[in-house]
Protein 1
Amino acid sequence: MRVVLEARSDYAFVGELVETATAWLRDQGLDEDPGADIVAQVLSAPSFAMSADLNGTTTVWHAVVLRRVEDGVPPYELLVRVRATVKKRHFPEGASTAVPAAITAKDLHLDLIDLADDAEVGVLMDHYISMVRELGPMRSARTLPYNILVLGNPHELGCADTPADWQQQLTFLADAFDANITFERGPSVAGVPKNLMCLVRFDPFAGELPRKKKADGSDDQDEIEHTAIEARFTTFKEAFQRICAALNAFEPPQTSDEFTPRDLKPGEKIYHRKIGNAVGYDRFNAGSTESCQHTTEYVRYYNSDKAVKGFKRRYTNFEPSWMHHCKQGGCGMYAVFCPS
Ligand SMILES: [Zn+2]
Protein backbone atom coordinates (compact mmCIF):
# COMPACT_ATOMS: atom_id res chain seq x y z
CA MET A 1 0.00 0.00 0.00
CA ARG A 2 2.86 2.37 0.82
CA VAL A 3 4.28 1.87 -2.62
CA VAL A 4 1.22 3.37 -4.26
CA LEU A 5 0.47 6.10 -1.72
CA GLU A 6 2.55 9.16 -0.96
CA ALA A 7 3.31 11.27 2.09
CA ARG A 8 0.82 13.87 0.89
CA SER A 9 -1.96 11.32 0.36
CA ASP A 10 -5.03 11.41 2.55
CA TYR A 11 -4.82 8.69 5.17
CA ALA A 12 -8.32 9.23 6.62
CA PHE A 13 -9.27 5.82 5.18
CA VAL A 14 -7.19 4.17 7.91
CA GLY A 15 -9.50 5.60 10.55
CA GLU A 16 -12.53 4.34 8.62
CA LEU A 17 -11.03 0.86 8.40
CA VAL A 18 -10.43 0.89 12.15
CA GLU A 19 -14.10 1.81 12.69
CA THR A 20 -15.22 -1.07 10.46
CA ALA A 21 -12.92 -3.49 12.29
CA THR A 22 -14.08 -2.29 15.71
CA ALA A 23 -17.76 -2.63 14.75
CA TRP A 24 -17.19 -6.14 13.40
CA LEU A 25 -15.32 -7.23 16.53
CA ARG A 26 -18.10 -5.86 18.70
CA ASP A 27 -20.71 -7.82 16.68
CA GLN A 28 -18.68 -10.96 17.28
CA GLY A 29 -18.41 -10.28 20.98
CA LEU A 30 -14.65 -9.80 20.61
CA ASP A 31 -14.57 -6.16 21.57
CA GLU A 32 -11.56 -6.68 23.81
CA ASP A 33 -9.58 -6.93 20.61
CA PRO A 34 -8.32 -3.54 19.40
CA GLY A 35 -9.42 -2.85 15.83
CA ALA A 36 -6.54 -0.41 15.35
CA ASP A 37 -4.04 -3.15 15.98
CA ILE A 38 -5.59 -5.42 13.39
CA VAL A 39 -5.73 -2.70 10.76
CA ALA A 40 -2.11 -1.73 11.45
CA GLN A 41 -1.04 -5.35 10.94
CA VAL A 42 -2.84 -5.87 7.67
CA LEU A 43 -1.67 -2.55 6.23
CA SER A 44 1.94 -2.50 7.32
CA ALA A 45 2.86 -6.14 7.91
CA PRO A 46 0.68 -8.26 5.61
CA SER A 47 1.72 -11.83 4.99
CA PHE A 48 0.34 -11.51 1.51
CA ALA A 49 0.16 -8.44 -0.70
CA MET A 50 -0.34 -7.96 -4.37
CA SER A 51 -1.33 -5.13 -6.65
CA ALA A 52 -2.05 -4.61 -10.31
CA ASP A 53 -3.02 -1.75 -12.56
CA LEU A 54 -6.54 -2.28 -13.83
CA ASN A 55 -8.56 0.29 -15.80
CA GLY A 56 -6.35 3.25 -14.93
CA THR A 57 -6.37 2.64 -11.19
CA THR A 58 -4.24 0.42 -9.02
CA THR A 59 -5.96 -2.39 -7.15
CA VAL A 60 -4.20 -3.54 -4.01
CA TRP A 61 -4.91 -6.60 -1.90
CA HIS A 62 -3.40 -7.19 1.52
CA ALA A 63 -4.09 -10.16 3.72
CA VAL A 64 -2.83 -11.50 7.02
CA VAL A 65 -3.82 -14.24 9.42
CA LEU A 66 -3.60 -13.17 13.05
CA ARG A 67 -3.72 -15.55 15.96
CA ARG A 68 -5.36 -13.85 18.89
CA VAL A 69 -4.70 -14.93 22.40
CA GLU A 70 -6.60 -13.14 25.14
CA ASP A 71 -7.39 -13.79 28.74
CA GLY A 72 -10.63 -15.64 29.24
CA VAL A 73 -11.23 -16.23 25.51
CA PRO A 74 -10.14 -19.38 23.69
CA PRO A 75 -7.42 -18.52 21.16
CA TYR A 76 -8.76 -17.79 17.73
CA GLU A 77 -7.46 -16.89 14.28
CA LEU A 78 -8.57 -13.98 12.19
CA LEU A 79 -8.19 -13.71 8.45
CA VAL A 80 -7.98 -10.02 7.69
CA ARG A 81 -8.14 -8.77 4.13
CA VAL A 82 -8.10 -5.30 2.67
CA ARG A 83 -8.90 -4.55 -0.93
CA ALA A 84 -8.39 -1.00 -2.08
CA THR A 85 -8.31 0.89 -5.33
CA VAL A 86 -5.93 3.78 -5.68
CA LYS A 87 -6.08 6.62 -8.18
CA LYS A 88 -2.52 7.47 -9.05
CA ARG A 89 -0.88 10.86 -8.62
CA HIS A 90 -1.97 13.02 -11.54
CA PHE A 91 -2.11 16.60 -12.85
CA PRO A 92 -5.67 17.86 -13.33
CA GLU A 93 -6.14 19.70 -16.63
CA GLY A 94 -4.47 23.11 -16.54
CA ALA A 95 -3.16 22.63 -13.01
CA SER A 96 0.51 22.96 -12.23
CA THR A 97 0.50 20.97 -9.01
CA ALA A 98 -0.13 17.27 -8.87
CA VAL A 99 -2.96 15.67 -6.98
CA PRO A 100 -1.41 12.97 -4.78
CA ALA A 101 -2.41 9.34 -5.09
CA ALA A 102 -5.66 8.67 -3.26
CA ILE A 103 -7.69 5.70 -2.11
CA THR A 104 -10.94 5.71 -4.08
CA ALA A 105 -12.51 2.55 -2.69
CA LYS A 106 -11.71 0.20 0.13
CA ASP A 107 -13.09 -2.90 1.74
CA LEU A 108 -12.08 -4.64 4.91
CA HIS A 109 -13.04 -8.27 5.41
CA LEU A 110 -12.62 -10.08 8.68
CA ASP A 111 -13.25 -13.79 9.05
CA LEU A 112 -12.78 -16.11 11.96
CA ILE A 113 -10.96 -19.20 10.80
CA ASP A 114 -9.44 -22.27 12.39
CA LEU A 115 -6.30 -23.36 10.64
CA ALA A 116 -6.14 -26.55 12.69
CA ASP A 117 -9.16 -27.65 10.66
CA ASP A 118 -8.21 -29.03 7.23
CA ALA A 119 -11.33 -27.64 5.57
CA GLU A 120 -10.41 -24.12 6.64
CA VAL A 121 -7.10 -24.29 4.84
CA GLY A 122 -9.39 -24.55 1.81
CA VAL A 123 -11.25 -21.43 2.91
CA LEU A 124 -7.97 -19.56 3.11
CA MET A 125 -6.86 -20.77 -0.32
CA ASP A 126 -10.25 -19.86 -1.74
CA HIS A 127 -9.67 -16.26 -0.67
CA TYR A 128 -6.24 -16.41 -2.23
CA ILE A 129 -7.66 -17.67 -5.54
CA SER A 130 -10.21 -14.85 -5.60
CA MET A 131 -7.37 -12.35 -5.37
CA VAL A 132 -5.32 -14.07 -8.05
CA ARG A 133 -8.36 -14.30 -10.33
CA GLU A 134 -8.86 -10.58 -10.13
CA LEU A 135 -5.26 -9.47 -10.43
CA GLY A 136 -3.78 -12.25 -12.55
CA PRO A 137 -1.20 -14.93 -11.74
CA MET A 138 1.61 -13.84 -9.50
CA ARG A 139 4.45 -15.09 -11.63
CA SER A 140 5.17 -16.12 -15.14
CA ALA A 141 5.61 -19.73 -16.16
CA ARG A 142 8.74 -21.27 -14.74
CA THR A 143 10.09 -24.58 -13.77
CA LEU A 144 8.15 -25.79 -10.77
CA PRO A 145 9.48 -28.70 -8.72
CA TYR A 146 6.26 -30.68 -8.19
CA ASN A 147 3.36 -32.07 -10.18
CA ILE A 148 -0.31 -32.56 -9.57
CA LEU A 149 -2.41 -34.88 -11.71
CA VAL A 150 -6.19 -34.54 -11.81
CA LEU A 151 -8.21 -37.41 -13.30
CA GLY A 152 -11.75 -36.79 -14.44
CA ASN A 153 -13.77 -33.67 -15.09
CA PRO A 154 -15.84 -32.76 -12.01
CA HIS A 155 -18.31 -30.79 -14.12
CA GLU A 156 -19.07 -33.73 -16.42
CA LEU A 157 -19.14 -36.17 -13.51
CA GLY A 158 -21.85 -34.29 -11.69
CA CYS A 159 -19.95 -32.39 -9.01
CA ALA A 160 -22.37 -29.64 -7.95
CA ASP A 161 -21.52 -25.98 -8.54
CA THR A 162 -18.37 -26.68 -10.54
CA PRO A 163 -17.41 -23.27 -11.92
CA ALA A 164 -16.67 -22.91 -15.63
CA ASP A 165 -13.09 -21.92 -14.82
CA TRP A 166 -12.43 -24.81 -12.41
CA GLN A 167 -9.23 -25.80 -14.20
CA GLN A 168 -7.95 -22.24 -13.97
CA GLN A 169 -8.75 -22.13 -10.26
CA LEU A 170 -6.90 -25.38 -9.61
CA THR A 171 -4.00 -24.13 -11.71
CA PHE A 172 -3.69 -21.03 -9.50
CA LEU A 173 -3.90 -23.26 -6.46
CA ALA A 174 -1.17 -25.55 -7.80
CA ASP A 175 1.01 -22.53 -8.46
CA ALA A 176 0.66 -21.47 -4.84
CA PHE A 177 2.10 -24.87 -3.87
CA ASP A 178 4.95 -24.69 -6.46
CA ALA A 179 3.41 -27.36 -8.65
CA ASN A 180 2.46 -27.86 -12.26
CA ILE A 181 -0.94 -29.38 -12.82
CA THR A 182 -2.13 -31.79 -15.52
CA PHE A 183 -5.75 -32.65 -16.24
CA GLU A 184 -6.73 -35.99 -17.76
CA ARG A 185 -10.26 -36.88 -18.77
CA GLY A 186 -9.41 -40.50 -19.43
CA PRO A 187 -9.90 -43.28 -20.14
CA SER A 188 -6.18 -43.53 -20.80
CA VAL A 189 -3.65 -41.54 -18.83
CA ALA A 190 -0.41 -40.46 -20.47
CA GLY A 191 1.52 -41.40 -17.34
CA VAL A 192 2.25 -40.21 -13.89
CA PRO A 193 4.49 -37.17 -13.81
CA LYS A 194 7.68 -37.27 -11.78
CA ASN A 195 7.75 -35.61 -8.34
CA LEU A 196 4.06 -36.23 -7.87
CA MET A 197 2.71 -34.04 -5.12
CA CYS A 198 -0.86 -35.16 -5.35
CA LEU A 199 -3.05 -37.35 -7.52
CA VAL A 200 -6.73 -36.42 -7.48
CA ARG A 201 -9.32 -38.76 -8.91
CA PHE A 202 -12.84 -37.50 -9.47
CA ASP A 203 -15.05 -40.60 -9.55
CA PRO A 204 -16.66 -42.07 -11.54
CA PHE A 205 -13.53 -41.41 -13.61
CA ALA A 206 -13.79 -43.82 -16.53
CA GLY A 207 -10.12 -44.67 -16.79
CA GLU A 208 -7.75 -46.93 -14.95
CA LEU A 209 -5.82 -45.48 -12.08
CA PRO A 210 -2.15 -45.40 -13.03
CA ARG A 211 0.00 -47.84 -11.09
CA LYS A 212 3.60 -47.80 -10.00
CA LYS A 213 6.29 -50.45 -9.85
CA LYS A 214 6.67 -52.16 -6.51
CA ALA A 215 9.76 -51.15 -4.58
CA ASP A 216 11.04 -54.75 -4.65
CA GLY A 217 11.29 -54.54 -8.46
CA SER A 218 8.84 -57.41 -9.08
CA ASP A 219 6.23 -57.20 -11.85
CA ASP A 220 3.41 -56.59 -9.38
CA GLN A 221 2.27 -53.04 -9.22
CA ASP A 222 1.06 -50.92 -6.38
CA GLU A 223 -1.83 -48.56 -6.50
CA ILE A 224 -0.68 -44.98 -6.25
CA GLU A 225 -1.79 -43.11 -3.19
CA HIS A 226 -4.45 -40.64 -4.21
CA THR A 227 -7.27 -38.40 -3.12
CA ALA A 228 -10.53 -39.92 -4.31
CA ILE A 229 -13.48 -37.56 -4.60
CA GLU A 230 -16.98 -38.88 -5.27
CA ALA A 231 -17.98 -36.19 -7.73
CA ARG A 232 -21.72 -36.84 -7.58
CA PHE A 233 -21.96 -36.43 -3.82
CA THR A 234 -19.52 -33.56 -3.40
CA THR A 235 -19.76 -29.87 -4.16
CA PHE A 236 -16.84 -28.27 -5.93
CA LYS A 237 -16.21 -26.19 -2.82
CA GLU A 238 -15.77 -29.38 -0.76
CA ALA A 239 -13.60 -30.92 -3.48
CA PHE A 240 -11.44 -27.78 -3.48
CA GLN A 241 -11.02 -28.05 0.28
CA ARG A 242 -10.07 -31.72 0.03
CA ILE A 243 -7.42 -30.90 -2.57
CA CYS A 244 -6.07 -28.05 -0.43
CA ALA A 245 -5.82 -30.38 2.56
CA ALA A 246 -3.96 -32.99 0.47
CA LEU A 247 -1.52 -30.38 -0.84
CA ASN A 248 -1.04 -28.97 2.62
CA ALA A 249 -0.24 -32.43 4.00
CA PHE A 250 2.36 -33.13 1.30
CA GLU A 251 5.91 -33.54 2.48
CA PRO A 252 8.75 -33.93 0.02
CA PRO A 253 10.21 -37.43 0.16
CA GLN A 254 12.85 -37.49 2.87
CA THR A 255 14.98 -40.03 1.01
CA SER A 256 16.32 -37.25 -1.20
CA ASP A 257 18.02 -35.72 1.80
CA GLU A 258 19.65 -38.96 2.84
CA PHE A 259 23.17 -38.83 1.58
CA THR A 260 26.63 -39.57 2.75
CA PRO A 261 28.68 -36.39 3.01
CA ARG A 262 31.67 -36.56 0.71
CA ASP A 263 34.49 -34.49 -0.73
CA LEU A 264 33.96 -32.75 -4.04
CA LYS A 265 36.60 -33.78 -6.55
CA PRO A 266 38.67 -31.09 -8.29
CA GLY A 267 36.79 -29.80 -11.34
CA GLU A 268 33.51 -31.38 -10.34
CA LYS A 269 30.35 -29.47 -11.28
CA ILE A 270 27.10 -30.53 -9.65
CA TYR A 271 23.71 -28.90 -10.12
CA HIS A 272 21.15 -28.95 -7.33
CA ARG A 273 17.63 -27.78 -6.83
CA LYS A 274 16.51 -26.61 -3.45
CA ILE A 275 13.76 -28.87 -2.19
CA GLY A 276 13.05 -27.43 1.20
CA ASN A 277 14.08 -25.68 4.36
CA ALA A 278 15.34 -27.27 7.48
CA VAL A 279 16.09 -25.35 10.64
CA GLY A 280 19.20 -23.36 9.80
CA TYR A 281 20.00 -24.82 6.39
CA ASP A 282 18.54 -25.37 2.94
CA ARG A 283 17.84 -28.84 1.67
CA PHE A 284 18.90 -29.71 -1.84
CA ASN A 285 18.00 -32.61 -4.11
CA ALA A 286 20.49 -35.37 -4.85
CA GLY A 287 22.14 -33.25 -7.53
CA SER A 288 23.10 -33.96 -11.10
CA THR A 289 25.83 -33.19 -13.58
CA GLU A 290 23.08 -31.89 -15.89
CA SER A 291 22.40 -28.18 -15.62
CA CYS A 292 19.04 -26.52 -16.19
CA GLN A 293 18.06 -25.57 -19.73
CA HIS A 294 19.87 -22.23 -19.33
CA THR A 295 23.16 -24.15 -19.41
CA THR A 296 26.22 -21.98 -18.84
CA GLU A 297 24.71 -18.79 -17.41
CA TYR A 298 25.78 -19.33 -13.82
CA VAL A 299 26.97 -16.60 -11.48
CA ARG A 300 28.49 -16.57 -8.01
CA TYR A 301 25.82 -16.72 -5.35
CA TYR A 302 26.39 -14.73 -2.19
CA ASN A 303 24.49 -13.93 0.94
CA SER A 304 22.84 -17.21 1.55
CA ASP A 305 24.09 -18.61 4.77
CA LYS A 306 21.44 -21.29 4.75
CA ALA A 307 22.40 -22.50 1.28
CA VAL A 308 26.10 -22.61 2.30
CA LYS A 309 25.20 -24.68 5.36
CA GLY A 310 23.08 -26.98 3.21
CA PHE A 311 26.03 -27.64 0.89
CA LYS A 312 28.47 -28.01 3.78
CA ARG A 313 26.35 -30.85 5.09
CA ARG A 314 26.67 -32.53 1.74
CA TYR A 315 30.22 -31.73 0.66
CA THR A 316 32.86 -31.99 3.37
CA ASN A 317 35.38 -29.73 1.62
CA PHE A 318 32.80 -27.17 0.47
CA GLU A 319 33.86 -23.54 0.16
CA PRO A 320 31.22 -20.78 -0.12
CA SER A 321 33.01 -19.35 -3.16
CA TRP A 322 32.06 -22.53 -5.08
CA MET A 323 28.39 -21.78 -4.85
CA HIS A 324 26.72 -20.52 -8.02
CA HIS A 325 23.21 -19.87 -9.18
CA CYS A 326 21.47 -19.80 -12.54
CA LYS A 327 21.33 -16.24 -13.85
CA GLN A 328 17.84 -16.70 -15.24
CA GLY A 329 15.22 -15.11 -12.97
CA GLY A 330 12.86 -17.59 -11.44
CA CYS A 331 14.92 -20.65 -12.42
CA GLY A 332 16.35 -21.31 -8.99
CA MET A 333 18.98 -23.86 -9.96
CA TYR A 334 22.08 -23.93 -7.76
CA ALA A 335 25.46 -25.17 -8.86
CA VAL A 336 28.58 -26.19 -7.02
CA PHE A 337 31.75 -25.67 -9.03
CA CYS A 338 34.82 -27.18 -7.43
CA PRO A 339 37.96 -25.60 -8.88
CA SER A 340 40.22 -27.99 -10.78
ZN1 LIG B 1 18.39 -22.03 -15.13
Protein 2
Amino acid sequence: MKKLLSRDEYEQLLKNTPRDVCLLCQAQEQIVLGSSTHWLWIASLSPYWKFHTLFIPRKHLEDIAELSPELFEDFKTLHQKAKSKVLSLALKHDDGKPIDQFIIMIRLREVAIENGSTYPKPRHLHIHFVPDREGVERFVLDPLAMEADIEQLRLSE
Ligand SMILES: [Zn+2]
Protein backbone atom coordinates (compact mmCIF):
# COMPACT_ATOMS: atom_id res chain seq x y z
CA MET A 1 0.00 0.00 0.00
CA LYS A 2 1.28 3.45 -0.90
CA LYS A 3 1.36 5.94 1.89
CA LEU A 4 0.24 9.52 1.85
CA LEU A 5 2.92 12.21 1.66
CA SER A 6 3.65 15.35 3.59
CA ARG A 7 3.64 18.58 1.56
CA ASP A 8 7.47 18.57 1.56
CA GLU A 9 7.63 14.98 0.31
CA TYR A 10 5.07 15.80 -2.37
CA GLU A 11 7.02 18.87 -3.54
CA GLN A 12 10.11 16.66 -3.85
CA LEU A 13 8.14 14.11 -5.88
CA LEU A 14 6.95 16.83 -8.27
CA LYS A 15 10.40 18.37 -8.54
CA ASN A 16 11.88 14.95 -9.36
CA THR A 17 9.27 14.14 -12.00
CA PRO A 18 10.31 14.94 -15.58
CA ARG A 19 8.43 17.91 -17.03
CA ASP A 20 6.85 15.81 -19.77
CA VAL A 21 5.40 13.23 -17.35
CA CYS A 22 1.91 13.78 -15.95
CA LEU A 23 1.66 12.09 -12.55
CA LEU A 24 -2.13 11.99 -12.77
CA CYS A 25 -1.86 9.98 -16.01
CA GLN A 26 0.14 7.35 -14.06
CA ALA A 27 -2.64 5.43 -12.32
CA GLN A 28 -0.07 2.99 -10.89
CA GLU A 29 1.46 5.90 -8.93
CA GLN A 30 -1.89 6.76 -7.36
CA ILE A 31 -4.00 5.33 -4.56
CA VAL A 32 -7.10 4.46 -6.58
CA LEU A 33 -10.21 4.23 -4.42
CA GLY A 34 -12.78 3.67 -7.14
CA SER A 35 -13.38 3.95 -10.85
CA SER A 36 -15.97 4.31 -13.57
CA THR A 37 -15.81 4.20 -17.34
CA HIS A 38 -14.15 7.60 -17.69
CA TRP A 39 -13.03 8.57 -14.17
CA LEU A 40 -10.87 7.50 -11.27
CA TRP A 41 -11.49 8.42 -7.64
CA ILE A 42 -8.07 8.70 -6.00
CA ALA A 43 -6.57 9.78 -2.69
CA SER A 44 -4.93 13.18 -2.73
CA LEU A 45 -1.33 11.93 -2.33
CA SER A 46 -0.54 14.89 -0.13
CA PRO A 47 -3.89 15.76 1.44
CA TYR A 48 -4.73 19.30 2.57
CA TRP A 49 -7.17 17.83 5.10
CA LYS A 50 -8.04 14.33 6.31
CA PHE A 51 -9.92 12.26 3.71
CA HIS A 52 -9.09 14.71 0.90
CA THR A 53 -9.67 12.87 -2.38
CA LEU A 54 -9.76 13.73 -6.08
CA PHE A 55 -11.78 12.77 -9.12
CA ILE A 56 -9.71 12.71 -12.29
CA PRO A 57 -10.68 11.85 -15.85
CA ARG A 58 -8.81 8.76 -17.07
CA LYS A 59 -7.91 10.73 -20.18
CA HIS A 60 -5.58 13.71 -19.85
CA LEU A 61 -7.90 16.74 -19.96
CA GLU A 62 -6.95 20.15 -18.65
CA ASP A 63 -10.17 22.14 -18.53
CA ILE A 64 -13.79 21.57 -17.50
CA ALA A 65 -14.71 22.91 -20.95
CA GLU A 66 -13.37 19.61 -22.31
CA LEU A 67 -15.95 17.55 -20.39
CA SER A 68 -18.61 16.11 -22.69
CA PRO A 69 -22.13 15.42 -21.37
CA GLU A 70 -21.20 11.72 -21.33
CA LEU A 71 -18.13 12.37 -19.18
CA PHE A 72 -20.14 14.57 -16.82
CA GLU A 73 -22.90 11.96 -16.44
CA ASP A 74 -20.26 9.36 -15.62
CA PHE A 75 -18.67 11.72 -13.06
CA LYS A 76 -22.02 12.16 -11.30
CA THR A 77 -22.37 8.39 -10.93
CA LEU A 78 -18.91 7.88 -9.46
CA HIS A 79 -19.25 10.94 -7.23
CA GLN A 80 -22.50 9.57 -5.81
CA LYS A 81 -20.86 6.21 -5.05
CA ALA A 82 -17.89 7.91 -3.40
CA LYS A 83 -20.03 10.18 -1.27
CA SER A 84 -22.22 7.25 -0.19
CA LYS A 85 -19.11 5.29 0.77
CA VAL A 86 -17.71 8.09 2.91
CA LEU A 87 -21.07 8.62 4.62
CA SER A 88 -21.45 4.87 5.25
CA LEU A 89 -18.18 4.86 7.21
CA ALA A 90 -19.55 7.43 9.71
CA LEU A 91 -16.15 9.18 9.76
CA LYS A 92 -15.56 11.96 12.26
CA HIS A 93 -13.70 15.24 12.31
CA ASP A 94 -10.90 15.47 14.91
CA ASP A 95 -13.32 16.88 17.48
CA GLY A 96 -15.74 13.98 17.06
CA LYS A 97 -18.34 15.79 14.93
CA PRO A 98 -19.61 13.65 12.02
CA ILE A 99 -18.29 14.16 8.51
CA ASP A 100 -21.53 14.85 6.68
CA GLN A 101 -20.76 17.83 4.42
CA PHE A 102 -18.33 18.15 1.57
CA ILE A 103 -16.72 20.73 -0.68
CA ILE A 104 -16.05 20.10 -4.35
CA MET A 105 -13.51 22.44 -5.84
CA ILE A 106 -11.53 22.87 -9.02
CA ARG A 107 -8.52 25.16 -9.09
CA LEU A 108 -8.26 27.05 -12.35
CA ARG A 109 -4.79 28.16 -13.38
CA GLU A 110 -4.84 30.46 -16.33
CA VAL A 111 -1.06 30.76 -16.30
CA ALA A 112 1.23 27.76 -16.05
CA ILE A 113 3.57 28.01 -13.08
CA GLU A 114 7.00 27.24 -14.40
CA ASN A 115 10.24 28.16 -12.67
CA GLY A 116 10.57 30.44 -9.72
CA SER A 117 10.00 29.70 -6.08
CA THR A 118 7.42 27.00 -6.57
CA TYR A 119 7.26 23.55 -8.19
CA PRO A 120 5.41 22.39 -11.32
CA LYS A 121 1.76 21.58 -10.60
CA PRO A 122 -0.25 18.90 -12.40
CA ARG A 123 -2.14 20.31 -15.41
CA HIS A 124 -4.41 17.25 -15.52
CA LEU A 125 -7.96 18.23 -14.55
CA HIS A 126 -8.68 17.16 -10.98
CA ILE A 127 -11.78 17.77 -8.91
CA HIS A 128 -11.07 18.02 -5.18
CA PHE A 129 -13.58 16.30 -2.88
CA VAL A 130 -13.08 17.12 0.80
CA PRO A 131 -15.01 16.91 4.04
CA ASP A 132 -16.35 20.24 5.22
CA ARG A 133 -18.46 21.73 7.93
CA GLU A 134 -19.47 25.11 9.28
CA GLY A 135 -16.65 26.89 11.03
CA VAL A 136 -13.87 24.62 9.80
CA GLU A 137 -10.71 26.49 8.91
CA ARG A 138 -10.96 25.61 5.25
CA PHE A 139 -7.73 27.06 3.99
CA VAL A 140 -5.50 26.16 6.89
CA LEU A 141 -3.89 22.88 5.91
CA ASP A 142 -3.98 20.02 8.42
CA PRO A 143 -0.37 18.85 9.00
CA LEU A 144 -1.67 15.45 10.17
CA ALA A 145 -3.91 14.90 7.14
CA MET A 146 -1.49 12.28 5.77
CA GLU A 147 -2.09 10.06 8.80
CA ALA A 148 -5.75 9.39 8.02
CA ASP A 149 -6.54 5.82 6.90
CA ILE A 150 -7.48 6.63 3.30
CA GLU A 151 -7.69 2.97 2.25
CA GLN A 152 -10.96 2.48 4.12
CA LEU A 153 -12.65 4.69 1.52
CA ARG A 154 -11.95 2.20 -1.29
CA LEU A 155 -15.09 1.17 -3.17
CA SER A 156 -15.69 -2.54 -3.49
CA GLU A 157 -16.02 -3.53 -7.15
ZN1 LIG B 1 -2.45 13.70 -17.26
